Amino acid sequence: MDPRPARMPWLSPYLAVRNLERTADFYTKAFGFKVKGMKDQHGNINHINVFHKNTVICMLHPENAMGSPARAPASLNITASQSFYVFVDNVDKIYEKAVASGCRSTVSPEDFYWGDRMCTVIDLDGYSWSFAKEIKKPKAKAKKKKATTAKKKKTSSKKSPAKSTKKKVTKKKVTKRKTKK
What we know:
The protein has about 180 residues and is α/β, with parallel strands linked by helices. The chain has a domain at about 15-135: 2,3-Dihydroxybiphenyl 1,2-Dioxygenase, domain 1, CATH 3.10.180.10. About 35% of the residues lie in helices and about 30% in strands. The protein has four helices and eight strands, in the order βαββββαβββαα. The strands form two sheets. It has a four-stranded mixed β-sheet, with helices on one face. A four-stranded mixed β-sheet has the order 5-8-7-6, covered by helices on one side. The chain is globular, with a radius of gyration of 29 Å.
């Protein structure tokens, strides 16, 4: 039996945020995420699940909630040591919405050597979000395959008896010339 609630991954980052409702609203408008809050025993929303493509990608809680000392990176005036890499349908559209909503751009949309179009922004609480879409398979794999094929051809030519005899003959001629002088 699976111990997880429906649509929950095995691992979910749990982010401390400065203002729970503001961050939930921001993630909805800037990134297009869906959110669902949970009320505590006093009727207050004290926890929010953040969904992308019908799966929970992270959870939010207010700073210092339930005795936790966790604080948002922006509250501590630091850069978050972790970042998030989320695949989306349209990198440029997400980037434009995120920046217009108040995110700080760190990498504008660009095609990268590993085959993804990607951008990175910092949200209102100081968390780093990269949004990506695979645009093509990396060329390095194709080059590596060609290099391996060329290596095989080179190796097989060394094993060829005709070529190895030729090399010996060439060496003998050089030796004879040196002897005549």
